[in-house]
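It is worth pausing here to work through a concrete case rather than discussing structure prediction in the abstract. The textbook approach is simple: state the sequence, then state the predicted structure, then interpret. We follow exactly that order.
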Amino acid sequence: MLCDYQQIFRQSGHLIDNMKNTQKYKIIILAGSLRQSGSITWAVSLVRAFCQQGHEAVLLVMGSRGEAYLPINLQTIILGKARTNILVKIYHLLLLRKIYKSGYKRLEEWVYNRRAKKFLTHFEKSSPVDLIIKDFNTPTPAVFTGKKHLAILHEKVSVADQETCKRTQDLYTKIAAVSESCAGGCRKNGVDVHHVLYNPLDVEEIRKRAEAFTVNDDYVVFVGALIDRKNVTALLEAWYCSGIQQKLYFIGRGEKQKILEKRAQELGVADRVVFTGFASNPYPFIKSAKALILPSHEESMGYVCFEALALDTPVIVAGFESATEFYDQDSIVALTPKESFNARLAKAIINTVQHKQNDQHLLDKNSAIKNMSYPNVVKNYLQFMNM
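Step two, the predicted structure:
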């Protein structure tokens, strides 16, 4: 998708021409720049879910195209970066954005609101928008004020951000979170979370994409950002201590990669630790792995675990708070005591890979994968919004 105005308008007009079926609701899902992340995966899947259920849904991107996976037939409008505007360019050239930060922010908001307004004029020619759904942290153009809004929290609100969140939450009709632990953490910091709505998961689509290519190797895998919160250094140490013959694949990138590469060299296993970098389609890697390992300190949901389960790949998961919502306590690798976490994780890796032990299962009381199916997600979203 190109981002200039003319193409935006032509695309939006094309969407309207193809959206004249008698469908229940017209819905806009707002997202930031299309970088690979859990919230972008959620937004893309949500558009597909509503469309598959006969609704008019479009992904409106408040930013650039980025590298995230987009299905060919996904109805998407990309507004582009604000800095493509001539006034914003001048701010950048004169370094005014560093001097007048609040003024620069207002200018960016004006640019996005102007673009969103022109898109909305075309999109609402046949009928008004019934619902705006957005990630809580995605900016909301002023043109959408007064419309029914649902904001979704994909991570806990930090103490540092709580004042901003308290101010912005009044803009939304309702607020939901992707897990009970995420909702609880946000409530503690003053955000009025009304409900929990699971992310959509299309098992058949994941299985289809997993057939794109074959990975002919013997390995366990981590998929995600290589950052402190993901506890990837502990994973490398635990894998080394386990002594298994399978390689360790890291699918992703981040600030910890150089540290991991150096540590692998020190341990003498650099030839058995593979860094693939960013992968727009990680599913073949997940499918062919002996196990997917998620050692994170904190996750709001651990969505990649469900993707692995959809591919019948064993999952080893650390005991972050939301893990207890979905897995039996006996199947989680406790994060505390911290000093012995690596040893516990190494044991879990051995049990899963060598002894074929993998007792992890979703709790029946949550029926998580069932509730994450497209029909159920759409039903739950609309019921929550009294639609």
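Step three, interpretation. Residues 36 and 68 are 5 Å apart (CA to CA). The longest helix spans residues 101-123.
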